[in-house]
Amino acid sequence: MPQPHRSRVTVVIPVLDDAPHLARCLRALRRQDRVPDEVLVVDNGSRDDSARVAQAHGARVIVCEEPGIPAASAAGYDAASGDVLLRLDADCHPGPAWVRTMADAFDAHPGTVAVTGGARFADSPALLRGPLAAAYLLAYAAVMTPLLGHLPLFGSNLGIRASCWREVRAHVHRHDADLHDDLDLAFHVGERGRIQFVRRTGMTMSMRPFHSLTALRERARRGSATVLAHFPADRPPRR
Hints:
By secondary structure, the protein is an alpha/beta fold. The chain is 39% helix and 18% strand. The chain is built from eight helices and ten strands. GO terms for molecular function: glycosyltransferase activity.
């Protein structure tokens, strides 16, 4: 009896000087109940041991000399050999079913071109980790969904079909380090198919980017810059 198609999965992790968190992330990927077929760590100019840590954990290291997460993420997607490309940050810790859950969403829904999930904070007070992260992600979705006309993507927990990436790779703003790569990708991907939210991925993430008002303002500024890079051409009524 023929076996159902099983997508080949590549995990892409951009990194800059984050060796301790990267080691923890890579250990979690090795403990997945469905181990990814390929793990790519994109070294974006690290001066610490990030590249050595990646190699020690069996990941393939891609060197991206152009600064910025947009360039690093795009370099990883370009180099990937999988049918499904999953992306998370070095300071994330995926639950043991993350790869399987994300890949199954693609296999079960052929019309889905990208998936995204949530996360809990790993380093805030225990009782607040879930609620604080939920509040942040709900605010992000509430603001961006009307602007996009569909769900946004969340860079700490997303996936895209390789076939869709090949369609949008020449159009993403990979050379602008001042933009959010996940939001930029959402503008382009959403024109080509459905973005699906995947529940219960078990993802946790560091709260480091939210430790100060300055950091929060910077994230908001980059979000605004990403939206403005697409307007007026990409307003939802015209897409």
